[in-house]
Amino acid sequence: MSRPLRLVVFDLDGTIVDSQSNIVRAVAEVAKILGVPGPPPDQVPRVIGLSLKEALAELFPGVDPGTHEDLDREYREAFVRLRASPGFDEPLFAGTHDVLDQLDRAGYLLGIATGKGRRGVNHVLSCHGLEGRFSTINTPEESPGKPHPGMILRAMAEAGVEPRNTVMIGDTTYDIQMALAAGVGAVGVSWGNHPISELEAAGAHRLIDRLGDLLQAVECLTAPRVP
Predict the structure, then answer these.
(1) Closest Cα to residue 14, out of 4, 24, 27, 2?
(2) Which domain holds residue 108?
(3) 208 assigned to some structural domain
């Protein structure tokens, strides 16, 4: 009997893409443009993973609703300028291509579930030669943002994969909470935006310190259950 389809869904920012410094820079630029108090830089990683609207609401709680609309617009424009500036860099974490190849060879379908907008996702995939690597891509433009399970539920529906054969890989508590709410496996990574102790406390099923350990963690979570 053939093995059922299996799906591995990746977060982007902080999981396979090292984008924190650019996000912190964009938030500071937006605050300066609009003349509003900006958050301390060390607070910004706390909201990475949320939809942009929710993240900005957390970072700028004292501004009026109209200014929130301006924040959203200016942030998107600031990131377009950043990407076009000389020396812009948003590298993949070491081992990303290798682990995607390993998962491909092992027969896994690959997906993305991210708080990043679709334009930003497309830019990352294009820059790093990842077009066509993912069977399903979900952002807050298609589904509710994290930690709501909508992106995972949509990914499984698109891929035709059951929860017991699906694993979410992420660096924030939002990723872990989303995975648990969707009833899928949750792997937390130690190099991202939230401390690994918080990922463990949130209920991650596996924790890894390097991408080279991912295939083994995923295999453990998708192994056939013994009757």
Answers:
(1) 24
(2) 6-18+90-222
(3) yes
- Answer whether residue 1 is part of any domain: no
| 94 and 10 in a common domain | yes
Is the backbone of residue 172 left (phi > 0), alpha (psi -120 to 50) or beta?
A: beta
Pair 120, 79: CB distance under 8 Å: yes
CA distance 72 to 56: 7
Q: Is 17 exposed, middle or buried (0-12, 13-18, 19+ CB in 10 A)?
A: buried
62-104 tens-digit pLDDT:
888 778 889 999 999 999 999 999 988 999 999 999 999 999 9
Answer for the pair 27, 39: CB distance below 8 angstroms, yes or no: yes
| Angle formed at CA 165 by CA 163 and CA 169, multiple of 5 degrees | 85
In the listed set 35, 69, 84, which residue is the last one of a domain according to the structure? 84
